[in-house]
Amino acid sequence: MEEIKKVLIDSPIRKNIGDNIPFKKLISKNLDEIMESLEILEKKEKSPLNIVIVGEVKSGKSSLVNAILSKEVSEVDVLEATSSIIEISYGEKETRANIEGVEKVYLDREFLKRVNIVDTPGLKSITDRNEQKTLNYIQNADLILFLFDATHLGQEDIYDTLDLISTYKKPMAGIVNKADLLEDDRLDVLEYIKDEYSIYIEDFFMISAYMEYQDRISKQASIGDADLVISDYDDLRENFQNLDKYIEEVCNNCESIKDSSIRSSLEGIIHKEIIHHHDYLKSINIILGELNKYEGLIEKKCEYINDKMNFEISDWINRVFLGDELYKINDNIANARLYINEDYINETINRKKNDLDSIYFKEWNECLKEIEYEVDESIKKSVDNIEYKKEILNAPNIKIDDSNINLNDLLATLGTGAVLGATSGGIISIYSSAIGSSAASLTIGNALLAYCPPLLIAGTITGGLGKLIYEKVKMEQKNNDIILEINRFVEQLKLDVAKSLSEGYENSSKEIIDKTKEMFSVNKGISIDKCEAETFCESIDSYIKNLEKYIIN
């Protein structure tokens, strides 16, 4: 136990739970539950053996407890004799106390030093609360005595109850009670019960707990007028003596039984630890794979968008930019003063830039939505295709401090589905959050503007050749040289504007890629870099392999 505890504490996730490990809130809850189960098991290791008596209401559980202890501990002959759990333990003085709805009874009986006996209110009791209490005690039982009412057999709910109890993998003996009230042959009834329930129970004892209880306490069997009495009680008394011997044998072997029970529960805890780590690792690997996919897709989209923008820029520069203006200047040099000035050129460039911006951000908007949808659909498909059943079908049921979790519940709630489910949500909402409270109505193109400021072209006329031409234009010198110089100036200006616009959009694209990669990682719950994530996953994989050594089967 101590060795396993040290191994579990050394889990890579537990060791780093205070750091920025992915989905630590989701996985830490599961891992805390594992450690709580281990603590309960540690206490169980030091506690007496637990024998839990289970059966339907009025099946004679209380009479059985009283007969076993040769003392009236539980009330009988009332509508619901045991309305709460009665836990009987060893005590030097006989005392009773009600603690959180459980009746604690302490008796000076030697075998109670090794054994606790628990009388339950019944699985089909008046309240759901009572039924849940019984289930909780069954989970901590080392031996279950299941009572059948010999006068009331074949009920469907008995099968349902035994199906449920059998999932706990606990030793169980069948007690066929009220045999003194049988009209039919008792052997036929016993054979019927064995045929019906031997798949759940190996040992059966046919008894009359009530008559044994009366005999042991008063030495006189006191029976009601309406009871059907049989004359040969000796065989039922002998059966009860055999039950006593069975319980005594259990007591004598309680340490080995407890050890076996604890080993089974401990193995179950390890199974669950492996399942949680395995599913967590699977989840992280799926998400990391999708992040890599996202980065690859966005890089390809970036190439496409840059090519499209370069085409739009080149087409405008070569076909449109200052074409009409040059024609008018060639026709009348006086027009040069209208067009070869900084205000006009910048207005022309930035008017086109606004159109290009619209194209650019529309492309990125559609691109990010398309990529995100594709990645999210891939993650959802991964969730749909996950098959837990092959991995955990043979794992024992191990949640020992609360109600039973069956396979279907386990399949529905384990790590991968929860982790991957937590990755839903859009990049657009992340951008909006980053921009501010008023950003809810923004398109992603508008949001991206916060990261990619407008690409302004300025200073086109203030230096070098531009300044010289501008001076000549002001003097309205019309000659071939000035026309050639203007044409050369415009050609160079085209190159500069095209380069400036192209580089501006490419730089903005790089910033968009960096920001969206970062935001997508955060949105999908990954707050560590790839290298750290890979190292973390490798450590989890090694941890799982180490844990598997402690599983016997």
UniProtKB/TrEMBL annotation:
> Which keywords are on file for this protein?
GTP-binding, Membrane, Nucleotide-binding, Transmembrane, Transmembrane helix
Molecular function, one GO term:
GTP binding
Output the superkingdom of the source species.
Answer: Bacteria
Query: Transmembrane region positions?
Result: 448-470
Annotated Pfam families: MMR_HSR1
Location of the G domain: 51-178
Query: Which Gene3D superfamilies does UniProt cross-reference here?
Result: P-loop containing nucleotide triphosphate hydrolases
Q: Which InterPro entries match?
A: GTP-bd, P-loop_NTPase, Small_GTP-bd, TRAFAC_Dynamin-like_GTPase
Per its UniProt record, what PANTHER family does this chain match? SARCALUMENIN (PTHR43681:SF1), TRANSMEMBRANE GTPASE FZO (PTHR43681)
Q: What is this protein called?
A: Small GTP-binding protein domain-containing protein
Q: Which organism is it from?
A: Asaccharospora irregularis DSM 2635
